[in-house]
Write a structure and sequence with these properties.
By secondary structure, the protein is of the alpha/beta class. It has 17 helices and 28 strands. The strands form 6 sheets. It has an 8-stranded antiparallel sheet with strand order 3-2-4-1-10-9-11-14, with helices on one face. Helix 12 links the parallel strand 22 and strand 23 (429-432). Helix 7 runs parallel beside helix 13 (445-462). The radius of gyration is 26 Å and the shape is globular. The protein starts with 11 loop residues before the first strand and ends in an 18-residue tail after the last helix. Residues 1-9 and 293-302 have low confidence and may be disordered.
């Protein structure tokens, strides 16, 4: 495993070339990338024939104290998350060539760094860090010395010898008018301003300066020259003409907006996020159906006579010219759907499995993306559709699953939040969440938006086929009411949830139990609790409690039940009684008006009653708030919990 940014984390890169002071822009960009997880930070700035590097273990604000006055208008910056090499200044980025002639920042893994390092050491190169990144710096330096190539060409030559994943950016002391960046497996975005250019892992680093970007693809590099502009090419040297995209986000969306933490802001934003997710998609009044050919299909028109779902992302035509079809048609004809995801997205996918099987009568399998390509999954391209889910659209394991499925010949559909992300570009089609940027490491609004998209997708597939029209219209109406119902949960329950948090903040263990559609919510509630409060928490199907976990229950362990009055409510109620018989402390989430649980539970949180398949979008919200308030009361860093990063872009 590489030792630059490690194997499970997502470091941050930012770079600038223009007329402004680089230090302010780089440090501001690094501060906006803090959510990605890191333990050290550094910047390198070229000015008047000198390369100055400043590094600091700890937060970006500590780096600012020593780097904010560095002069110069070209530079690079980095936040690093250590795994193998210690989090110290020697291992922090940027790394320098032997003569300090150029500096490099790197995200990813150089898998063959050991033989490369040994080869370079035999040539006399000295290493001051434990990282694979310094090996790459010295490799580029060696190519330049031995061949006389320019920096740009030396980077190409060096990268041809590298095995692994990288996102890199380089600036040169001897040519202070050039930046070179390249990508393979780790995201990089070029920002284009007025005679100024930015490179970053995430556009949030430069969003206050420009919204015009170019997304670099794997195997591409960009060379930026002052007063000339930029040129994108492959790492083999083929010139490209990439599309310039205008981002939708605003600076306000990546600020806390008066909230103490991004996580709380994003929990409270869920009504707006879901409204945006449904905008133009959930329609309560008649409208013309989408037509991929631009004509009206009279056979489809009756289906749009009342409340309906319109998902343009699956109405597009795919396939060869002589055999074209829409993604919707392929989904409706699928013999099996395989959902691949990680973490919270996997939990959303599990809800999606229940929805698609129940509403659409299509067999569905949910796979951990990290396991999908390493086991012998039998794929039948003519019958199977693979669906990948990722908030960032850059999750390495999910991307690997996508590519494995494509290589096997399967049609792949993506669900992601980030417009222009790698998953969005490499799938055959899909659906954006439009939930807005999610900065907090613990996902909240992305989860509810993912479940909402899966609900809309299931209803669109089922429409006119596998569920009665009246049920379809009723569920569409229920989706439209979700934002107001979440607002009601947030406004009416936060005080009670704070009270519960005060009581259980010192707990060492916690169980989350649910059944049916709310079993995935139990998993998600447990994940939130352990992620940000560091309380050991587990989620189980409620009936599985008696097959082992019940042995843990005592009067010190809180047990959270999702006990909506649905088709299996009586079963869950019996499970609550089993916990009470063992003196367990019960917290229940149930419907408004249900008073049956008051005598069985220490605390009951009431939420609006909805249909069973829609309920996970509501039942998860109190669990998000409970985890948040317990974590805050325990003094935890809610937005940047230890050992975690927002997205994982390496294996």
């Amino acid at each position: 495993a590489g030792q630059g940014c490690g194997t499970r984390s997502m470091c941050g890169i930012t770079a600038y070339l223009g007329s402004k002071e680089a230090a302010e822009i780089l440090l501001g960009g690094l501060a906006r990338l803090e959510y990605r997880g890191y333990d050290s930070a550094g910047v390198a700035i070229c000015n008047q024939g000198k390369m100055t590097v400043k590094k600091k273990v700890g937060k970006v604000k500590e780096l600012k104290s020593i780097a904010s006055t560095m002069p110069g208008n070209i530079g690079i910056g980095h936040t690093r998350w250590a795994t193998h090499g210690e989090p110290n200044e020697k291992n922090a980025h940027p790394h320098l060539s032997s003569d300090s002639g150029f500096a490099l920042v790197h995200n990813g893994i150089i898998e063959n760094f050991i033989p490369l390092r040994e080869s370079l050491m035999r040539k006399g190169y000295k290493f001051v860090s434990e990282t694979d990144t310094e090996v790459l710096v010295k490799l580029i330096e060696d190519v330049m010395k031995s061949t006389g190539l320019s920096l740009e060409e030396a980077v190409r030559q060096a990268l041809s010898q590298v095995v692994g994943a990288y996102g890199i950016c380089i600036c040169s002391r001897d040519d202070p008018d050039i930046l070179v960046a390249a990508r393979l497996g780790s995201p990089l975005i070029l920002g284009i301003g007025e005679q100024e250019w930015f490179v970053a892992s995430d556009a949030s680093a430069f969003l206050e300066y420009t919204r015009h970007v170019v997304h670099l693809n794997d195997g591409e590099m960009v060379v930026i020259r002052r007063n000339v502009g930029y040129q994108v090419s492959t790492t083999q040297g083929t010139t490209l003409t990439p599309a310039i995209v205008e981002l939708e986000g605003t600076l306000d969306q990546i600020e806390k907006g008066g909230y103490k933490h991004f996580m709380l802001k994003e929990i409270m934003e869920q009504p707006i996020a879901l409204e945006n997710c449904m905008r133009g998609r959930v329609k309560l009044h008649p409208s013309a159906p989408p037509s991929p050919r631009g004509d009206e299909d009279p056979e489809i028109m009756p289906k749009f006579s009342g409340p309906h779902i319109n998902l343009g992302g699956i109405e597009q035509l795919v396939g060869p010219p002589d055999h074209q079809f829409t993604l919707l048609q392929r989904l409706q004809a699928a013999r099996r759907i395989i959902i691949c995801a990680c973490g919270t997205s996997w939990h959303a996918g599990l809800v999606g499995e229940y929805m698609l099987e129940s509403l659409c009568k299509i067999p569905v399998e949910i796979e951990y993306a990290s396991e999908f390509r390493y086991r012998s999954v039998v794929l039948r391209p003519e019958e199977d559709i693979v669906m990948v889910i990722s908030q960032s659209g850059e999750t390495a394991d999910t991307l690997a699953a996508l590519r494995h499925a494509k290589q096997a010949g399967c049609l792949v559909i993506g669900i992601c939040n980030t417009v222009g992300s790698t998953i969005a570009r490499e799938t055959d089609g899909g659906i954006y969440l439009h939930a807005g940027p999610e900065i907090g490491v613990a996902s909240t609004k992305a989860f509810t938006a993912q479940v909402l998209v899966l609900a809309m997708l299931a209803l669109r597939i089922a429409q006119g086929r596998t569920i009665p029209d009246e049920e379809y219209k009723m569920l569409v109406k229920e989706l439209s009411k979700l934002p107001s119902r979440i607002s009601k949960i947030l406004s009416e329950n936060e005080a009670k949830i704070c009270e519960i948090a005060k009581v259980y903040r010192y707990a060492h263990h916690c169980l989350f139990l649910g059944r049916g559609y709310n079993y995935p919510v139990a998993l998600e509630g447990a994940l939130k609790m352990k992620e940000i409060s560091y309380i050991h928490a587990e989620g189980y199907p409620a009936a599985e409690m008696k097959h082992g976990p019940i042995a843990l229950i005592d009067n010190l362990m809180p047990v959270v039940f999702i006990a909506m009055q649905d088709s299996i409510y009586d079963k869950v109620k019996s499970n609550i009684m089993e916990v009470r018989a063992r003196k367990g402390c019960v917290i229940a989430i149930t419907d408004e008006g249900n008073t049956e649980l008051e005598s069985l539970c220490e605390y009951v949180i009431h939420i609006p009653k909805v249909s069973e398949c829609v309920s996970p979008i509501l039942t998860v919200v109190p669990l998000q708030l409970l985890s948040y308030h317990i974590a805050v009361m325990r003094g935890c860093d809610v937005d940047m919990p230890r050992n975690l990063a927002k997205s994982v872009t390496t294996e």
